[in-house]
Amino acid sequence: MKVVTGVVGNDIHVVANRLIDISLQARGCEVFNLGVNTSLEEFIDAVVETDADILLISSLNGEAEGWCRDLQFLRAEYQLRDVVFVIGGNLAVGEAKDSDIVPKYKSYGFDLVFHQVDLNTGLDALEQYMKDRS
Amino acid sequence: MNELLIDIGSTYFKVCSKEGISQHFRDFKKNIYDDLNTKCADILSKYAKEDTYICSSANGGLSTLIIGVTNSFSLKYAKNIAYNSGINIIDTVLYGKIQESKIPSETLDVVIIVGGIDSVGGFFDEKLFAYLKKLTYSNIVYVGSSKDAHYLSENIANLKILSNIITDKLKLNEGELKEYLTNLYQEDIVGKEDIKHLYDITSNQIYSTPYIVNRSLPFIDAEFDVVNPFIVVDIGGATTDIHYSRDLVRDNMLTESEYDRLVFKKLGVYKSRETLIHAAKNNEFVYELLAYLNVTENILDEQSEKALRILMQLSIFLVLCKVSRLNSVYVTLKLEQLKSIVLTGGITKVLTHEECESIISFFYRKIMNLHHIPTIVLDSNYDIWTLGMVQQHHQRSETCR
Ligand code: B12
Questions:
Q1: Is B166 close to A51, i.e. CB distance below 8 A?
Q2: Which has the closest alpha carbon to B180: B196, B167, B153, B162?
Q3: How far is CA B274 from CA A123, B238, B240, B270, B278, in A?
C-alpha cells in the first residue's frame, strides 16, 4: 500500500508527522512523507507521481479547514476517484464536536476523518476501511 | 600570476594578465579570433598556449521546453536542474493540459520529458506524440519513470533516456540530467566555429563563463567583504545571471550543489536591449521607478550614456523582481535574509556604487517593504571571474597529478 502523508498548510508541528511515518512503515506501507508546510496541490501532485492508494493529511494548528475546501475540485481535475483521502489531528480551533466536524470534512471530499483521535486507533480504522473496500 | 585569462562575452571581451585587466568592445565585423588578435596581439604573444585560459559566454545559452506530469514534482525538479545547468526555459507544459498548450515558434535546443517514480508507469500516450510533432527541436531527453522509457523510445525518434530525476522517495536526483545539459551547453559554446578557432591560442579546455563564476562562489566570502547569504548578479550584454546560495531557496528540495544559478536570457543591456525594455514596460513599478530616478519613459528610446545607465539600473531592478515573491515562475529567493549583493559584469564599469545602492534600496522599500538593505559589493575589477578561472585551473592540475 502506498501512502502520501504530510502536514497541511503553514503548520509546522512535526512530531505527529514523524510518528505517522514510522507507524505506517511498521504496518508495511510504502510512505512518501512530504513533511510539514505542505500545500494541497503538493499532496495531490505527489499522489499522481507515485500512484498512491492513500493520501493521509494531518493538521495540528487548527487551520485545516481553510486549506481543504479546494480538495473536491483538485480531486476531480486529476481524476483520483480510487484514492482514499484521510485527515486527522486537531481539525478545528478550540472545542468542537465530532458530530459537526466529521460531516463537514466528508463534504470536502475526505473518506475518513479523525479529529483528536489517537494515531493507532485511526490507523486501525484505516486498515479496516481498506480491507472492507477490496 | 603567470597565466593569461580571457573571457569572451557577447559584447566585449576582457583579458587579464600580470599587467592587469583590460576590456575591449567586440567588433562584430570580425570573428572573435581575428578581433582578439588585432586588439591584443602584444599580450597574446607573451603567453604560451598552456598558460592561456579562455572562457566564453558569447552565445547566451540553450533553450528548453519541459513537459511534466505535475507542477510540484516533475516540472519543479526539471526546472531546477535546467536553471542550474544554465539553460533557458522557454515554457513548461503540464501533461494533463498538453492539448491546450501553446506551441513555441522558435527551435528548441532540447525538450525534457518527465513524470512518475520508477515503479509507476502509463503516464503518457498519443497526446504527447501529437504535441511533439508540432515542435522543432534539436535534442529530446526523457528523465521520468523507467517503466515508461521503453514505450516512449519506441514512439519518439532519437530519444535520449537518462536516470529518473525523481527518486523512489520522491526526492530530486540531479545527477545525469544536469551532466547531460551542462555538456550540451558546453558543446554549444565551444562548438561555435568562432570559438573553436580559439584553440589555436590555448591548449586548455574552454569553459562557459557562468560555470567559472559559479566555481568561485564558495570562496567569495573569504576573499571579499561579503557576508553569507549573498547573491552574485552578473549583468552582461545579452544575459543576466543570478548565482545564489541554496539556503536562500524557499523549498526543501534535496540537492548536492551549494550554489544554484538562474539565467535571464533576455535581460541584457546591449544585445537584448529590446526585450529588456519590453520587460521594463510590463513591470507595474517601472514608472514609479523612472520617476524616482528623475527621468521619463522617453529615456528608454534614447541612445545615450545616460540611457545606458538607466537601462542597467532597470535590469538590476527587474532581475530582483524576478526572483522575489512578485514572480512565481522562477525560483523565489528569501531576499529578506540576504546579507550581501555582489554585482559583477560590464555593469560595474558603468554604474557607481551610489547608483546601484539607490536602485536596490528602491527595490527593498517598494517590493519588500524593508528599509534596511544588504551591503552592496561591486566587483569592478572582475575578481570573481579571475578567482573562478584560477580555481578551475588549480583543481585541474591537482586531479592531473
Ligand atoms: C509542541 C507544540 C508546538 C511547537 C511545535 C514544534 C514542532 N516543530 O513540532 C511550537 C511551539 C512551534 C508550536 C507552535 C504553534 N502552536 Co502548537 N503545540 C504544541 C503542543 C504543545 C504539542 C504538539 C505535539 O508535538 N504533540 C505530540 C504529538 C505526538 O501529538 P499530536 O501533535 O497531538 O498528534 C497526535 C494526534 O493529533 C494524532 N494525529 C495527528 N495527525 C493525525 C492524522 C491522522 C490521520 C490520525 C488518525 C491521527 C493524527 O496522532 C498523534 C499521536 O497520537 C500542542 C498542544 C498539545 N499538548 O497537543 C500545541 C498545539 C498543537 N499548538 C497550537 C497552536 C495554536 C500553535 C500556534 C498557532 C501558536 C501561536 N499562536 O503561535 C503555533 C503554530 C505554528 C505553526 N505555523 O504551525 C494549538 C492548536 C489549537 C487548535 N488546533 O485548536 C495546540 C493544540 C495548543 C493549544 N491547546 O492551544 N506548537
A1: no
A2: B162
A3: 60, 11, 14, 9, 6
Name the grid cell of B270.
Answer: 546591449
Mutate to test the pocket of ligand 1, among A60, A87, A117 (most ligand atoms within 8 A of CB): A60
Q: Which three cell numbers stand for residue B121?
A: 508507469
A45 contacts B73? CB cut-off 8 A: yes
B71, A41: Cβ pair inside 8 Å?
yes
Cell of B33: 579570433
> Which residue out of A4, A13, A22, A101 has the highest number of ligand 1 atoms within 8 Å of its CB and is therefore the one to mutate?
A13
Which sign does the torsion angle of CA B195, B196, B199, B205 carry? Answer: positive
Closest to A46 (Cα-Cα) out of A59, A36, A58, A33: A33
- Which residue range forms the structural domain that includes residue B349? 225-378
- Is the pLDDT at B101 greater than 80? The verdict is yes
Nearest atom in ligand 1 to A13's CA:
9
B361-397: pLDDT as tens digits: 999 999 889 988 999 998 887 788 888 777 766 665 5
Its pTM stands at 0.74
Same domain assignment for residues B230 and B101: no
Give B170-194 pLDDT, tens digit per residue. 999 988 998 899 888 777 776 777 7
For chain A, domain boundaries: 2-133
Q: Hey, what CATH class is A2-133 in?
A: alpha beta
Tell me what ipTM this predicted complex has.
0.92
Per the domain annotation, does B216 fall within a domain? Answer: no
